[in-house]
């Protein structure tokens, strides 16, 4: 009987995993973001070797998928360096905002894969980053349910 008619996979078959979404937006990265992509590729390559050595076919399939993602992100990365000679917020800048209650928060506008809001790194596609880009110190922007004043741009 042909394997095509058997419902149970044999030991060499691994179910195909869906590819990770690469998105359609430009892949802008900071220097740190570019380094992070290289680190992810190196980490995945090391994990792949370990999974192959262990004979873990499911892990190999998952790591191969992630490796394809990271390599594609690296090949489309557009290193973008913020101009130091500007007074307006750009990709790569760190911006401090003051909330109405006086709380000052600091955010750096970075690429998609580098974003980590808990660490103050926000994607350039985030609503807050979109509000900040192109603004100057002293201007007010929408920041969640309230407004905030830009107090510094680094």
UniProtKB/TrEMBL annotation:
<dbReference type="Pfam" id="PF01272">
    <property type="entry name" value="GreA_GreB"/>
</dbReference>
<protein>
    <submittedName>
        <fullName>Transcription elongation factor GreA</fullName>
    </submittedName>
</protein>
<feature type="domain" description="Transcription elongation factor GreA/GreB C-terminal">
    <location>
        <begin position="85"/>
        <end position="144"/>
    </location>
</feature>
<dbReference type="GO" id="GO:0003746">
    <property type="term" value="F:translation elongation factor activity"/>
</dbReference>
<keyword id="KW-0251">Elongation factor</keyword>
<dbReference type="InterPro" id="IPR001437">
    <property type="entry name" value="Tscrpt_elong_fac_GreA/B_C"/>
</dbReference>
<keyword id="KW-0648">Protein biosynthesis</keyword>
<dbReference type="InterPro" id="IPR036953">
    <property type="entry name" value="GreA/GreB_C_sf"/>
</dbReference>
<dbReference type="InterPro" id="IPR023459">
    <property type="entry name" value="Tscrpt_elong_fac_GreA/B_fam"/>
</dbReference>
